[in-house]
Amino acid sequence: MHLTDRIFVGGGGEGYGEPQYLRLGYANRHGLIAGATGTGKTVTLQILAEGFSDMGVPVFLSDVKGDLAGLSRAGDAGHKLHEPFLKRAATIGITETYAYRRYPVVFWDIFGEQGHPIRTTVAEMGPLLLSRLLELTEAQEGVLNIAFRVADEQGLALYDLKDLQSLLVWLGENRAEIGLRYGNISPASVGAIQRRLLVLENQGGVQLFGEPALDLADLMRTDADGRGHVSILAADRLMGSPRLYATFLLWLLSELFETLPEVGDPEKPKLVFFFDEAHLLFEDAPKALVDKVEQVARLIRSKGVGVYFITQNPDDVPEDILGQLGNRVQHALRAYTARDRKALRLAAQTYRDNPRFSIEEAIREVGTGEAVTSFLADKGAPGIADRTLIRPPQSQLGPVTPMQRAETLAASPVRGKYDTRLDRESAHEILARRAAEAAAAAEAAEAEEEHASPAEREYRAGRRYTGTRVTRSTSRPKAAEPDFGEAMGKMVMKELTGTTGRRIVRGILGGLFKGV
To answer: Which of 25, 368, 428, 490 shows its CA 20 to 30 Å from the CA of 138?
Structure first.
């Protein structure tokens, strides 16, 4: 009998417990898939993605090794695991319903090589996450916050990295005036941020920022059969920049949290988000960032989004966040060292005891494709832990060929929407135009000065130095003594209308934007 309110995860047989289901009504209460390398985490992620898609729930996941791209193709009877999969299906009693099939997949790639480009803007990323991405100090993060505030106040749109780079140049040149209002802006901090932006640019991070930015609605589509689209982010190259990987996925979670409306406790999630290699999110993370992740994990379920962390060891996830992960699939943990044994013992303590066996021993002994599972039961109570044989996948296990990937991209529902980068007027262009206008005004003033008659020059010089009408009389009325600010302002204006002033304006306000 086909159940419409739950996903079949695995079953029993001799030595195993009862069939295990993930109830859709509790799927937005998050989950954890943990286990050592090679114990079956990827297959578990794949069968959960299949189950959610079949139930009409869109899925977003990152493909770290390229294996999950197989969701776009049906399984093959010629695969080396075909017979073992059939045997496992018979063991858990799903032989009649087990059949190979493909799933509606949309490929994404920050670098635009293996999927549709996926972008956000600098403004949407925000100073907190950008500081995390750039590994800034507290002082440098403060300068970045000032830059974002000034951009808001002056209507300087921050879309891509060159917008931020141009804004930082302008901020450095005007640091004295701006610092009086917002605090000290040291040239050293501005320079450090610029250097970190250059590193990010060299790592390919420039591809992440720009337009058209990702429309979250494109992650929550269903196909003509009502199955949820599976959005797969190509992350094999992205893993070469782990900080970029973790920050991007955290940004996406934050955007979902801030954008989606409250839905309470829906019958099924609006989207399920799988965060592979989750330990990268928390390594060396400042407390402010961990607090933000905890806040998002705690509150985003009311937006109808389920978040599933995939990692090798449960202690990779902070305890406050781990306590919110109600649905658990624990593959084998190896206890070779004292630290491993401690981690194993702590992992076992997070499950509801089963009198039939020792959870700690089971976690150590389960083989590949087996797991200790616990899913939320009636009224959201944690289910009793049980040994489970994970069901085999129906889609292809393993990567796809470049030609197969191209076929999927050609049939994508968002084909052509993100492929061409846009470059609207933003901070870079606005600041460059201001610099050009200032240089032109200085040049015009100098030209006017050069073409003036001697009498006019003498008159203007008199006005410039005395502030009164010039007469030929030697008995001039005594001018009022100007205050210091007025005198300084007149001196600056005098210099700016001369040849030296023109060069300064051109050099500082114009030349700094070349190549930015």
So the answer is: 428
